[in-house]
Amino acid sequence: MAEKVPQSFANHVRWDPAFHFFLAPVFLITFIVSIVHAVRHPGWEQWWAVVFFFAAILLALKARLYALRVQDRVIRLEERLRLSGLLAEPLRSRLSELNEGQLIALRFASDAECPALVEKALREKLTRGDVKKGVQVWRADYWRV
Q1: At CB < 8 A and 24+ separation, what contacts does 52-59 make?
Q2: DSSP of 37-74, one letter per residue?
Q3: What are the structural domain ranges in the chain?
Q4: Whole-model pTM?
Q5: Would you tell me how many other CB atoms lie within 10 Å of the CB of residue 84?
Q6: Which terminus in the chain has less CB density within 10 A, N or C?
Q7: What is the pLDDT of residues 28-72, one digit of tens each?
């Protein structure tokens, strides 16, 4: 079995080949072709096909976004649990001040650097990307879809 490449800020984005390189392009190309066909051969059936293919694209995107939102909820819960064990008072009592993006980004931080990064995120109101950039020892997340 091939070893996984160590994750970092530069390569942590996950691509789903079936979705990003097959499904999305097929839907998009079909939608464009249906518009061209409707313009060249006007009729309610052709325009209905445009509406249908737009709905198919929307369905694919919404299904993907729903799955990502569920993962984000699980990650938030997991990070709150992890941080409640890692952080000392008074930082632990400020966990509720972390926003969703900060919590999700903190999953990449090692246990040792989490307290300082949480404090910095709260003090400087860091964005998700800023928190990720602040991680020195990357804790990989290979499970994200």
Answers
A1: 53/27, 56/27, 56/30, 56/31, 57/27, 57/28, 57/31
A2: HHHHS-SHHHHHHHHHHHHHHHHHHHHHHHHHHHHHHH
A3: 16-75, 87-139
A4: 0.77
A5: 11
A6: N
A7: 999 999 999 999 999 999 999 999 999 999 999 999 999 999 999
